């Protein structure tokens, strides 16, 4: 706690204790005070600022009432996360950063007996560490800007969430339990999930060329759970799995828990490099390929139509299955077009198709689905039944009401426009500011992020630290590669989904400053849209 | 019957007979077809809509199986009312039986390429097999009763589900996203789940003697997921886990997937036998004990107050952790009282506490929680974050609105009365009909089922088959024992939560008939309330 930043005005109408409380809240929002940090004892206010102990005590009471602190008599008063409303614009606190990436690790004393654990989550721990380092760097810079821009999250834009329509969908979903089978619907149900919703989803997926029966769909709590069910059902120690390099961090982390071996595959501007894949197939006998063919994460690249049919041919010839993660197929931008899913080329049931609604509706929803052929789906349904029975019916029916409404298509079209503007803004800013510095980047055609390659000689982690000092966070991409890779050393993920065009321009400006600082000691090389493919 | 409203699509995936059956069901629900009304004869479908007699016959069979018609050969097929209340009593179709136990195994040809899988679910497969056998036996009996009574499910009573109030809770939950942080709340959130709901839950749990902080609670999609997170975080190959014998099937099945070793523990009328536990502790070094101290599943027994404090003392002395599954603590019956949870005796953080809302609200909800001390909870939150991020916020807020309303307590009190009547009815019927035949049973003090011990010489599986022929299903309990046990050979689980008193009396009547048939060749022995404890 720095007393320097406290501004009290004894002539103001607002009582002093209120002013003090507001000052402390502002410090929390700025991130100057962290969750779990102890506030100064009451007497310290007197010593440093001449604030009476009555005033300081009252201020602490206000903070407690408003949820900004917690404390125990005799132990002190500790900072807590401010109520959500206030945290919105200031993603600057460590806690908010953690929540952005879905992680949690409060700073509290580790006391009491401890159980050894079997958890291995080095990748998300690493992401968290990067964010912590970034924030520390930002704070350490005395001439830092007022705001800290986070371009790592991969989250969608909250201003696009159709909150009012969601409210009405929930109300209608509730009504559906009074009709039909009434309360009987609310007993334990099929692990596949609500039949009515599966019928609708089967119809929805026709836009991607799929024609599943309702009984070929399993509803999940999101694509994360879908990946988990798949890994536990069909992956085990010693199996080899083909994986794009780099790829989606959660898939890597979940699959790694199963003790498999990776066969990493390079990408080029048309997506997965199939010649390289075929060479790998001639030497190895993989069981599965995990791929995000459309708007790949983190590159934003899309597998061309020609490669899609050839990939299926390879799967048949070399007898492997494909896990197609089709999360962002709705979000393609002007230069691109919607392409049929891999599963649409698959009459044999070799493609297991994953769909998530986290980006389409909102992330806190937790809703997704797996489409697969009979025997494969049966096994996944068995797993779902064992591990969490079925996906919540009230949630499922809310999704049905929301997404089967005609307004949903209009909202998707609007979202495409908004994201397209952000993508175009980011690409233009990169061309203007980072191209001349010798950077390359993927010409992302969809999704929410792209991959940035720094000029040779500049390491991603030193660039990350330098950029953080300038007030912008980007993610060193090494954690997104299945196996350690030379290419990973100077690549970063840059996301644009949840930043406005103005923030994106400002963010790239700051990246440029960081690069110029570092680049003074490095030679420049080829630059512009492009991609250094490597495994 | 008006043929005009029948819509059949020969190009659809769904077979025609299914479509026809669904059309007729819809007509019944709409009220176009009244109870007692005769359906058209088979040939009428051909004349009016060109539907073959095979298709129409199949459709009528479906309707009969699903309880929508009754009929006698030569007299015609007559509509029955399918409202929830009635459907509950007639869970007679195989599909419904499967759904009751959360399993799924459609009858479709297994074609196409197949992936080997790593799933081991022999226990629930065995339960399903028992139910299929039961139904086949029932159908094979020419003098079978009209209805088939299922006393295996462990499900709560659907007539108690507060459907209208749930509808209103969902509508209010939707409104909560327009206030406070608005759309920002709907981004990725903490793996612990909604803070507001955790604050409420912390308060709710005080009734069981717990005083957790909101940050000591992790929200899950139910107790099943809680067990899964626990097993993946804190259990691994070679670990030994203490387990009541018999116990909750899902815990057995989920934990077994982790390759642990069991140390089975006997129960007596006051719950877990602690002397026996202590002898086990002198010889082994277990990491964990899983227990359902209140309204134990399947016995309905409750651990006495004295034993609770001694159990915690043992945990400290022998350094193991306790997983306390407290699902049914709200449902204790007149002879019993609400007891403080084990976790309330635990200042050290040795008890990990599990709560589910499936029985309190309804099973299709999928909502539960884990309460644990700091470092343990951090690890569980990490696991939750990796495997499915967080529990759905719209679902969570609906639960909050529903369960924090004053009516919730009144509904719980009413439910206690209803279940108490069912429990008393079952106990009285057992005393009257099965006591004289030499049976023993647990004097269940809570929950939804008890354990029945047959006289020596009568095997549970042959009794199960005989009872099914009489029109009642009960579950041979061998699948509920951690390791094969001599005692398991003649015990069965009998559930009462989702059967009316009249059905329970009739069910026990039928069990009595089955027993008398089998018992003619066996000697009788001690009988009445009691329990053959064995490991």
Mind explaining what this structure looks like?
The structure is a homodimer of 535-residue chains. With 535 residues, chain A is an alpha/beta fold. Chain A is built from 17 helices and 18 strands. Chain A has helices spanning 16-30, 42-49, 53-65, 84-87, 94-100, 122-140, 163-175, 195-204, 223-234, 249-256, 274-283, 305-317, 374-388, 393-403, 407-434, 460-470, 501-519; strands at residues 69-72, 76-79, 149-150, 217-220, 240-244, 261-265, 267-268, 271-272, 288-291, 321-325, 351-356, 368-371, 440-441, 449-453, 472-473, 475-476, 491-495, 528-529. In chain A, the strands form five sheets. In chain A, strands 4-12-11-10-9-5-6 form a seven-stranded mixed beta sheet, with helices on both faces. A five-stranded mixed beta sheet of chain A has the order 16-17-14-13-18. The two termini of chain A are 47 Å apart. The relative contact order of chain A is 0.12. At the A-B interface, helix 4, helix 5, helix 7, helix 9 and helix 10 of A face helix 4, helix 5, helix 7, helix 9 and helix 10 of B.
Q: What is this entry, summarized?
A:
2 copies of one chain form a homodimer. Chain A has 535 residues and is of the alpha/beta class. Chain A is built from 17 helices and 18 strands.
Labels describing this entry:
homodimer, 535 residues, alpha/beta, 7-stranded mixed sheet, 5-stranded mixed sheet, 17 helices, 18 strands, 12% strand, globular
